[in-house]
Amino acid sequence: xxxxxxxxxxxxxxxxxxxxxxxxxxxxxxxxxxxxxxxxxxxxxxxxxxxxxxxxxxxxxxxxxxxxxxxxxxxxxxxxxxxxxxxxxxxxxxxxxxxxxxxxxxxxxxxxxxxxxxxxxxxxxxxxxxxxxxxxxxxxxxxxxxxxxxxxxxxxxxxxxxxxxxxxxxxxxxxxxxxxxxxxxxxxxxxxxxxxxxxxxxxxxxxxxxxxxxxxxxxxxxxxxxxxxxxxxxxxxxxxxxxxxxxxxxxxxxxxxxxxxxxxxxxxxxxxxxxxxxxxxxxxxxx
Length: 287
Known about the structure:
The protein is of the alpha/beta class.
């Protein structure tokens, strides 16, 4: 449980057989009291802040605590930290965090350790310990920006086409009339929207291009603002009569990656993935 230990939720850790990540001296004291009261031996991780400046005890606190962990039963079964800039391979903070964590690890003899996140895994042995913690890379996000993606995409997002409409040159599409047909055009109206997790920032307007969808095996641009429940796709480049009501438009998958749609919305793939789901019909393959 990455966000720490709370006495109010103490019994839930027993019921779930979950291990908290201790993020402060106060949490450690509460954890010690919990372990003593319940004689629980489920274990906990100790998080050391090596440069993220978010959660975790300081390096000085970790050094001072090390002798106690070696000689007293705090139930610490993992020493961990978190890389702040791992996706920027040459950022100097990476080397600083790796060096500091290595020095602290030497004080915790016999305690397993974990440092590498998705991008950190690709730093090699310097960031590898007993446990790695890949996250979004498991779903196909590129953990090595600027280089070929070593991960296979596993998420697909599709929507059904509700209608195909013809536009005259000069007619507009959607709220705010933000997209104007520069020629006689055709648009496919798809039953997906920002309520399904597709960010409105990926809209395609006269002022900027937006995201895209694969329809009839061709990449077609979003036309106009993404609505709550609907998206318009410009299919003018496709042969007339190829697209029909009931066909499928693919927004993630089939040559459109999570990173692609994130870039069109000016965000990161993590945000796209975490927004998908509440209204989507989920199909798990190979599970």
